[in-house]
Write the structure tokens for this entry.
Amino acid sequence: MKHTLLHDDVVFLSPAADPSSYAKYGATVIVSGAGRSSDHVNNLRRQGLRVAGSMWCLTAQSHDLHAYPELASAVARDIAGEPIAIAALAPASGSSAPRYYGCVNHPAFRAHMRRKVCDAMACGVDGLHVDEHLGSAAALTLGGCFCDFCMAGFAGYLAKLGDPALARTAKVSSFDSFDYRSFVKTFAPTREHYLSPAASIPLWREFTDFQLASAASNTASLGKLAQDIAQRPVTLSANLRLPATEHTVVVPHLSYCASEVAHNAAAGETGLAGAINAYRAAEALGIPMAATATPEDWAFVKNSNAEQLVCLWIALAYACGQRFMAPNRMPCGLSGGAADWFCGSASTFSPLYAFVKKHGFLLNDFSPVGPLARPEGLPSSFETSAKRNALAAALDSRPPLPLSAGNAWVFPRVKNDGTAAVHVVNHSYNAVTRLITPLANVEVRLPDSIFNRSFSGGTVYSYGAEPMKLTVRNEGNTSVMVLPEVKLWSIVRFEYWA
């Protein structure tokens, strides 16, 4: 079993309602929700799929609260001891009570998460996907968590750091009995005070580091439990919202990430800078990503019949070194109180994924060079704010702007054996016709400094066309080629000067 994602993998977010969809798309991986039964998992394997079960760290469901009443108190709490509600979640059916963040440091909630891992792995799946991996650390910006278990954990964390300057800041000689909650109350006795822009809370940076490290350690422990249950190596993934640095602490523990990436669908091709930035961040971190768009994006696509825009998203993700999940059944949020879904047309999208599978030799084991190359000097781990700030500064120092060739973006990539290639993506999406206008005679100019060499020619492999040879001419320190047509996405593999 492969323990990560390949660049040419075709990924499904969850099991398809129509099992024939896997063959239509050439699916290779299901990243979540696959643990329905052993028979279901074995059937998926027979179709060549690697499959993962899933659980989440955000909160307990109503049936869990009924079965385990102790979970009602195992929640994230603010400085005043009040539970912190999850604004994005509606109350459970038949209830008006808010739903609260579970605390990943509370023993009852940790036991709950372990039970969910056991359920997810019971059918013999190949991996575990941890949804909402931050858990109660996601409540940091909402004022938490200050429960007893977080306070004890934070005191131990500070003691382990062994920094006398921190003890002076806390006005203690030892952190053995330090209560950060009581200390903070002298500065901010309420949640409103704590969240005030004027509030300056000592040790807040270290508290943030502790909470993020706790979330990452929790995810790692869940992955270890999944492997112990399976009694073999399994994959571990999480939904990272890159380039947000709070999502980087867990990266060293993961096989890959499955992520919602905002595509700003209403803005068409002009709203994709954020997606490129997310893909570049994943590449810089060395974490393979299977991406999908947000529910808001999918709602726009469904309501506007914008399937060709999604074709652009797919080509862009693969050109940036990542993967875009097959748009087979994607959540659009709620419509009239019920879940709504975008179910793409296999006739539109499956040929694009067939192009991916046919040209894995142009995708696997390549890395970006040029404007989207991995910045140098990145930290190898991100457990402190200093390291996360260094990562952010390194990414910000080089804007995620691809090379331009008129209405096409150009993404240079090089294989570990030295093979050079460029992806040329046509982004001339017309929001009125909802079509991508084919481009003719696309001139691509590559400074020799990108690959540190010049070229004599190459072969272009284009979506919707047969491969053809290209001549490359050299103008000073620039290699120049003209692609006769780019319908959506072309990949040029170069030949060198003798």
Notes: The chain has a mean pLDDT of 93. DSSP finds 15 helices and 22 strands in the chain. The domain at 406-496 is CATH 2.60.40.1180 (Immunoglobulin-like).
